[in-house]
Amino acid sequence: MAGRRQFDEEQVLGAAERLFRAQGYGATSMLDLSRATGVQRGSLYNAFGDKEHVFLKTFARYRTRFLEAAETALATPDLRAGLSAFLRIAVANMTAGPARGCLSTRLATEGAGAGAKVCEEVRELLDALDALLLSAFSRPGTGCALPPDHAARLVVAFTRGLAVMERVHGDAGQLQAMGDDLVALLFPNPPA
């Protein structure tokens, strides 16, 4: 039937995410997306528009999934345990599958070359993560050694650095050990 999609949008966006993770935004073309998704370029254009729109749809899925996982981990009453869980999620996100790395950090390192809208989406994701962390660190009795806003900013910056270390070393165990070190620094007094 004319005008009817002949593909599963979730599968296509999943394949597009893997490609953007592997190649970045700037190095990915519509032809690359067509090959990776198995969908003709014309069908991609009809369904999503240009590459930027394919990316924005892909990134929206990624953002929702990442922030929901972070919020769930940080909601635990014991913030030390919640932060550890969040960092395990971040490491797993970076080291999963053949297209390793953090999608948002990969795009952030492309800078203005990725375009204003893409950069804005990355900034909004990091701001939303900062807000989640600030809310968690602002709860009474967390036992954190830093003021809530400092701790939140530090964790956001740490996760971006962790993504770079993943690209360099690719060692999930080493990344998790770094995360454990951060938790120990932020919460120097072990739970009773």
Provide structural commentary.
There is one protein chain. The chain is mostly helical. It has a domain at 59-186: Orthogonal Bundle (Tetracycline Repressor, domain 2). It has 9 helices and no strands. The model has no long low-confidence stretch (mean pLDDT 88).
The helicity comes to over 70%
Determine Rg (CA atoms, Å).
Answer: 18 Å
Taken as a percent bin, the fraction of beta residues is: under 5%
Do you know the CATH topology of the domain at 59-186? Answer: Tetracycline Repressor, domain 2
Major pleated sheet: none
Annotation field: number of helices: 9
Would you tell me the structural class of the helices and strands? mainly alpha
Order of helices and strands: HHHHHHHHH
Second rung of CATH, namely the architecture of the domain at 59-186: Orthogonal Bundle
The coarse silhouette is: elongated
Task: Assign the CATH superfamily of the domain at 59-186.
Answer: Tetracycline Repressor, domain 2
